[in-house]
C-alpha cells in the first residue's frame, strides 16, 4: 500500500477557517512523511493491526516487508478480514510463486472494488463515517470532544469513553483525569488487549510526546474498536429481532393495559368531579365562597390540566396502539365496555358542561356575598352610629327638669327641645335606611338575617318610643310654659300693683309718723283736715290690698293645683304679702295715734292763742305809752320854760313817774317768758315784740337820765363861764333852730350854717379845726353840750395849760421840776397822789433824783384825754 499518496486530496467544500485548518493538516502530513520516527510508528501500528487479524488464523508477523513477501500470510489476512476463501496459494519458494500469491491477494482486493493507489474520496468517506461513529458514541461524555484522528485522542479519554460506552464494567470512567493522559492511554490499551482482543498497535509515550499523533495509525487502532463492538452488535441484532417481536407484543399488551387503566382513572375522576361542579348550593360566608373559588382555581390550574393531558395522551396512545397493531399485522384493539374513546369524549363533554357557568356562578355568588357583607357592614355601621346617637336620649326625654325652672329657663328648654325635634326628624331617614338595608339583607337571604332583624326591630321600637317620649316632653314643656307664663303675668300684675301700693303705704306711714311743728290754730286745722281726707281713702286702699293679695293667692293656687315647683320668687318685685300686711297693720295702728296727736296739738294751739292775746293786750298798751313818754321828753328838752333849776325839778318828777311804771314791764316779761316756753315765735295780735318794749323802756330811762344830766351840765357851764340865763336861752334857740331833724343833734352842715348865722367867717381849714374841738370822736354830729362848750369858750375867760403850768412853777419854787414832798405839802392828799402817780420823771440837765416833770403833765391835762 502506498502511504505516500493517501493525503494528496483536499477538502474543497470547506471555506474560511476550515480551509486554513485543512491547509495546516496537509503541512503536518508533509512533515510526518519526512520524519523517521513517524515511519517507525506506522510500521508498528500496521504490524499490530495485521497480527490482530492473523491471531485468529493462529499466526502472526514480525516484519511487514519480510513476512508478507511470499503472499501467503497476506492471503491468510485477507481471508480472515473478508471471511471468504481465496484461490489456493502456491507453496513454492520461488519469486514467481511469491508474486503469484501477492497478485491473487491484490486481485481479490480489486474484485472487492478497492482502489489501492490514491484512494482519495472513498477513504475520506470512511474516515468521516468512523469519526461520526466516535462522536456519536462519546457524545454523553462531557470531557471528550472528538473532532479528528490526532489531537482529539492525546489525553486517552476518547479510547476509555468508547470502551466504557460499550462495556461500562471494564473501566471505572469516573476515576479518570484529563491531566493524566499516560494512565488513561495505558488503561485503554491494556483493557482493549485483555478483554477485547485488540493488540497494542500504539504506544502511549509516543502519543503523549508527539505534537501531532499519526492520523492513520490512530484511525487504524480506532477501527479495531469499531469492528470489535459492531461484531458484538450483530449478535445483539439477532437477539434484538426476537426481542423486538416479543417486545411489540408486550408493548401492545402494556399499551392496552395502560389504556384501560388510564381510561378507568380518567372516567372515575370525571365521575367524581361532575357532582362537585354541579353543586351550586352557595356558602353563607364570603370566606367560604372565596375558598370555593380558590378550589376551582386549583382545579383549573393544577387538577384539570394533567387530566386534559391524560385525555389527550389516552387518545394518542389509542391511535398509536391501533397503528402499531395494524403495522405488525395484529388485529385492532377493542377497549372494554364503556371505555371507548367516544365514551371518554362523552364523559369529558359532560364534565365541561358541568364546569361551564360554575366559575360565573361562583363570581356572582361572591358578588352577592360581597354585596351582603357590604350591606351587613353598612347596616352595622349605621346601626352603631344610630344607637350611639340614641344613647342617653330616653333619659334626657324623661327627665322632669321643667318642674323647677323659671319662665326664661323653660323657654330655653323649649328651644333646646325644638332643636332636638329637628335632629330627631333628621334621623328619621337614618332609621328608614337601616330598615331598608335589613329588608334587602332578608331578600338576599343573608345568613345572619335573624340577628339583623332583631337589631333592626329593636332600633325601630326604640325609635317609636323616642318619638312618643319626644311628643310627651314637648307637651309637658308647653304646658309648663303656659303655666309659667300665666304665673309670670300674675307676678307682673302683682308687681305693678304692689309697688305703688307699697310706696303709698310707706308714704302714709311716714306722713302718719311725721312730727309736725305748727304755730297757729289754722295750721293744726289744716293738718286735721288733711288727716281726715287721708282716713277717707283707707277703705279704697284696703280693697286694692285685698286685690293684690288675691293675685298672690291665685299664683299659689296654680302652683298647688298643677304641682309647679316655682324656681325662686317674683322676679319683678321683692315685695311680698307678709310685708304688705305688716305695713298695712302699721298704717292702721298709726291712724289713731295720729288722731290723738292732732287733738293734743289742737289743745296746745288754743292755749298758745290765749297766751298770745294776753301778751298782745298788754304790749299794745305799754308800747304806745313808752312812745308817748319819749316824745314828751324830747319836747321838754327843746321847749325851755323857766330857769334851769325849774326844768331840773320838773324832769326829776317826770323820771319818778316813769320808774313807777316798771311793774307793768315786769308783768309783760312774765307773759313773754310763758310764750317763749310754749315756743311761740309769732303773734299776729300785736306788732310789739318783747325786745321792742325792752329797747323802748331802756331808751326812755336813758333819755330821761341824759336830759337831767344835760340840764345839770348846763347849770355847771353857766356858773363856770358866767353865762347868763339869757345867753343860754339864746344858744338853745340857735341850736334848736339848726337841729333840723329834731334829734337833739346838729350835723356838720347845719353846724356850719349856724356858725355863719352867728357872725363867724371861716375857711375850710378853720371849720375843720372847730369841728375837731366840737366833734373830737369824728361822729359827724355836734351835741348841745359841745355847742355850749364851744360858744362859752369863745366868749368867756377859761383856764389854760400855761396858767396851770405857772401855778405849778410857784409851788416848785421856780424850778423846772417839782418833788413829791413839795406836792404833798401844798395839795390835798388825794390830789397830791393823783399828780405824783401821773407825772413823768424830769429829764432836764438840772434834774435831781425824784424830780417830776410838771410841764408835760399840765400840757396833758388840756390835750387828748389819754392820761
Automatic annotation (TrEMBL):
<keyword id="KW-0009">Actin-binding</keyword>
<feature type="coiled-coil region">
    <location>
        <begin position="245"/>
        <end position="272"/>
    </location>
</feature>
<dbReference type="Pfam" id="PF08726">
    <property type="entry name" value="EFhand_Ca_insen"/>
</dbReference>
<dbReference type="InterPro" id="IPR002017">
    <property type="entry name" value="Spectrin_repeat"/>
</dbReference>
<dbReference type="Pfam" id="PF00435">
    <property type="entry name" value="Spectrin"/>
</dbReference>
<dbReference type="Pfam" id="PF00307">
    <property type="entry name" value="CH"/>
</dbReference>
<feature type="domain" description="Calponin-homology (CH)">
    <location>
        <begin position="124"/>
        <end position="230"/>
    </location>
</feature>
<dbReference type="GO" id="GO:0003779">
    <property type="term" value="F:actin binding"/>
</dbReference>
<dbReference type="InterPro" id="IPR002048">
    <property type="entry name" value="EF_hand_dom"/>
</dbReference>
<keyword id="KW-0479">Metal-binding</keyword>
<dbReference type="GO" id="GO:0005737">
    <property type="term" value="C:cytoplasm"/>
</dbReference>
<feature type="compositionally biased region" description="Basic residues">
    <location>
        <begin position="1"/>
        <end position="12"/>
    </location>
</feature>
<keyword id="KW-0106">Calcium</keyword>
<dbReference type="InterPro" id="IPR011992">
    <property type="entry name" value="EF-hand-dom_pair"/>
</dbReference>
<feature type="domain" description="Calponin-homology (CH)">
    <location>
        <begin position="40"/>
        <end position="123"/>
    </location>
</feature>
<dbReference type="GO" id="GO:0005509">
    <property type="term" value="F:calcium ion binding"/>
</dbReference>
<dbReference type="InterPro" id="IPR001589">
    <property type="entry name" value="Actinin_actin-bd_CS"/>
</dbReference>
<keyword id="KW-0677">Repeat</keyword>
<keyword id="KW-0175">Coiled coil</keyword>
<keyword id="KW-0963">Cytoplasm</keyword>
<protein>
    <submittedName>
        <fullName>Actinin, alpha 1</fullName>
    </submittedName>
</protein>
<feature type="region of interest" description="Disordered">
    <location>
        <begin position="1"/>
        <end position="22"/>
    </location>
</feature>
<dbReference type="InterPro" id="IPR018159">
    <property type="entry name" value="Spectrin/alpha-actinin"/>
</dbReference>
<feature type="domain" description="EF-hand">
    <location>
        <begin position="726"/>
        <end position="761"/>
    </location>
</feature>
<dbReference type="InterPro" id="IPR014837">
    <property type="entry name" value="EF-hand_Ca_insen"/>
</dbReference>
<comment type="similarity">
    <text>Belongs to the alpha-actinin family.</text>
</comment>
<dbReference type="InterPro" id="IPR001715">
    <property type="entry name" value="CH_dom"/>
</dbReference>
<dbReference type="InterPro" id="IPR036872">
    <property type="entry name" value="CH_dom_sf"/>
</dbReference>
<feature type="domain" description="EF-hand">
    <location>
        <begin position="762"/>
        <end position="797"/>
    </location>
</feature>
<feature type="coiled-coil region">
    <location>
        <begin position="410"/>
        <end position="444"/>
    </location>
</feature>
